[in-house]
Amino acid sequence: xxxxxxxxxxxxxxxxxxxxxxxxxxxxxxxxxxxxxxxxxxxxxxxxxxxxxxxxxxxxxxxxxxxxxxxxxxxxxxxxxxxxxxxxxxxxxxxxxxxxxxxxx
Length: 105
Fold this sequence. Notes:
Layout: E1 30-33, E2 39-42, E3 61-64, H1 79-83, H2 99-102
Antiparallel strand pairs: 1-2, 2-3
C-alpha cells in the first residue's frame, strides 16, 4: 500500500476525525493561532454565525479568519497573505541574564 506524507492511505481523506475508544471520551478541541494567519480548529466543535445559526463544516480541521478580509468568513481563504496581515502573538520572553547576574547568589 502507498501512503501519503502523514501516514494516511492514498485516496483516504487526511482531515478525517480522530477516532478514540468509547471509554476515552471525545477528542479534545485544539485551537492553534497561526503566526500572521488564521486560527486552526481541530476537534468536534460547533461553529455558529452572528445570528446563532450553525455554520456547516466540511472538514475535521478548519481555519478561521482573523484578518477580516476573507470572502468566505468565518473561514480563511488566504487573504491574510495578500493584505500583509500581521499578528503580535509572540509572548514576550524575559531578558537573558547578564554575566554579572549569573554569578550573583
